[in-house]
Amino acid sequence: MRNVLFIFKRELGGYFATPVAYVFLVIFLVLASVFTFYLGNFFERGQADLQAFFNFHPWLYLFLIPAISMRLWSEERRSGTIELFLTLPISIGQAVLGKFLAAWAFVGIALVLTFPIWITVNVLGEPDNGIVLAGYIGSLMMAAGYLAIGACVSAITKSQVIAFVVAAAACFVFTVSGTPMVLAFFAGWAPQGVVEAIAGFSFLTHFAAISRGVIDLRDVVYFVSLVAAFLFANAALVELKKAG
């Protein structure tokens, strides 16, 4: 864990070494506020909850998180520092985990900075803060899923632009797989088991339940398994590129 912590500190510090991190935080907070108070009709709904806030998180993450993850490995490969980086006395698994945790912590910081919205709903009403906390936990787990996908894609190419586009596309597939439009396409010819499996891959399905305060073990297992699978693939790709 000492090596993972070393990579974690190195990567997290790197985010704040450039203005990019602050630009991302500002964009995230502005968009989250706009979606909540305007598109989500926070005041017009007249309900003391943060559903108007959490409902837009999948769509915010769909574009903003690939923007974070695209540089995780592609920048190392483009600049040629990946060879030097991997000569450190650390394993590839430790490097992958450290980079992922640093990016996840950065997203966590962005989420924490949305606390004024939580304070606002408590001032205006009496929300169930347990449900709100569950929503934040679910949002953080969903962000981990997006990050794991983006990090895996970033290990494939040297181009950050390609990494961003491919990661956003992959995340979009996982986001909408459970929507009625997608399921209707498969329902006409695919077996019911296949349709249910496709629906089970949807981020929206699993996050919606958690954001309503229902932390089901199946949803937690889904996100944990997804992250583990893509981090394993990430490590395998880095090892492959290293060998190549």
Question: Could you characterize the architecture of this molecule?
Answer:
By secondary structure, the protein is mainly alpha-helical. α8 crosses α10, α10 packs across α11 and α14 packs across α15.
Fill in the keyword field for this structure:
244 residues
Short description:
By secondary structure, the protein is mainly alpha-helical.
State the distance separating the first and last CA atoms: 28 Å
User: What value does the average pLDDT take?
Assistant: 86
Helix content: over 70%
What characterizes the major β-sheet? none
Please state the CA-atom Rg, rounded to the nearest Å.
19 Å
- Helix and strand sequence: HHHHHHHHHHHHHHH
Total domain units? 1
By secondary-structure content and strand pairing, the structural class works out as: mainly alpha
- Total helical segments: 15
Strand content: under 5%
What best-fitting shape do the alpha-carbon axes yield? Answer: globular
The strand count comes to 0
Write the layout of secondary structure elements.
Layout: H1 2-15, H2 19-39, H3 42-45, H4 51-54, H5 57-69, H6 71-79, H7 81-85, H8 92-112, H9 115-124, H10 129-154, H11 160-176, H12 180-187, H13 192-200, H14 203-211, H15 217-243
Helix pairs in contact: 1-8, 2-5, 5-10, 5-11, 8-10, 8-15, 10-11, 10-14, 10-15, 14-15
